[in-house]
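Figure S7 source data.
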Amino acid sequence: MEIEKILHSQREFFKTQQTKSIAFRKMYLEKLRDLIISHENMLYDAILKDFGKSRFDTLTTEISFVLNDIDYYLKNLKSLSKPKKVNTNLVNQLGSSRIYSDPLGCVLVIGAWNYPYQLSLSPLVAAVAAGNCCILKPSEIAHHTMMAMSVLINENFPPEYLRVYEGGIDETTALLKLKFDKIFFTGSTKVGKIVYKAAAEHLTPVILELGGKSPAIVTKDANLEVAAKRIVWGKFLNAGQTCVAPDYLLVEETVQEQFLEMLRKYIREFSYDPGSAQYTRIINQRNFHRLTTLIDQKKVYTGGDFNEEQLYIAPTILNAVDWNDEIMQEEIFGPILPVISFQSYNTVLNSILELEKPLAAYLFTNNSEEKEIFTRKLSFGGGCINDTIMHLSNDHLPFGGVGSSGIGNYHGKYGFEAFSHQKAILEKATWGEPNIKYPPYSDKKLSWIKKLL
Ligand code: NAD
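Tokens for the predicted nicotinamide-adenine-dinucleotide complex:
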């Protein structure tokens, strides 16, 4: 079906008001949950074909993530959708005030390839929970997962309610010409700007979940063993193709040597070798070439090997990197960790402040003053103290960027709010109203109004 026709049918369907019923939303959330569970093997197979992602990683970072979101909304939908009573100010007495969470209408979700299920289906789930119709355009770069989501949705849901639209740049460009009630985009900052411009034509609000260079800082007061283990895990999960992966490492000079040894130890322990089933491959040739040219062999501390046929790049640490090196100019989005040492904690935070605001930041220390300075001084989407990545697994926390790493949040109640309009209603009594706001005005009325306001 042509995309204009699908959107038109969704608009007509939305007008029937059916998506506003909590029972309707729950029914479809339950249906999606059951379909994901019954199609689990299809989902695993597709992602394995796309970039060799293991069942373990697919379960923990994709499928269980989406299922948890569904469970969250099934449990909390009633309270999230309930009109919220708020106070009413003096001039509006006798009255009462309420805020209604209204579905926006027909929304567009554009997904990225690196966590194809999570980044496409989690926003879709939030859109459904909030009572919208939705068109989902997954990333064509992960072709098999895009087709798997198409089977999951298009064969089981009415197109006038939910539809996966397959395609690449041309199809996305066509979609962006249409008027949606919200666009939720996950991807690069470069394409985020294209989406934002297109949305502006229709005054469509956007959520932009973008990328950036997320630092990890390790000071001499850190538990180095724990820091090394958690940084290696967070960096090389999904072969570094994670938007919130630590992009680069800043380590205090006095512990640098010892810390690098520990990083190497954990890389070996986690068995990320070429035959390993737990190590994801690079998504395609283009990214493989982009990444391998970033490896300055003179600076390789560990790793540095790659195999084009298998799209394998070994976990690589580059030491003695300079802020001006090529690898420090753009988001890496692959398994290469540049390391810069520092002497002064405050100076290194000032260097981060010179860059675009990152999507995430991580500090490893047991020093409370350092924690306080990190939290207050830097601006970033979200992050962890003494861990990497895990903040986004807590659905009580909002997830999103700031500045060039994004606009808006989702997860848990923030996802629901992202796809809702907060409609304000003031209800007035029809009796007991003083006459002073109505003309004709007088000095007496003015003096009363001054007192009241
Ligand atoms: P991308 O920007 O290339 O693609 C994202 C989506 O945009 C895809 O669906 C694609 O079809 C579409 N697209 C690509 N070029 C387009 C164009 N010219 N016009 C219109 N649409 C276009 O991003 P990607 O390679 O899929 O993902 C990598 C980037 O996404 C990284 O920067 C990463 O940090 C970021 N990311 C952010 C998050 C987050 O939650 N903030 C999550 C994952 C990835």
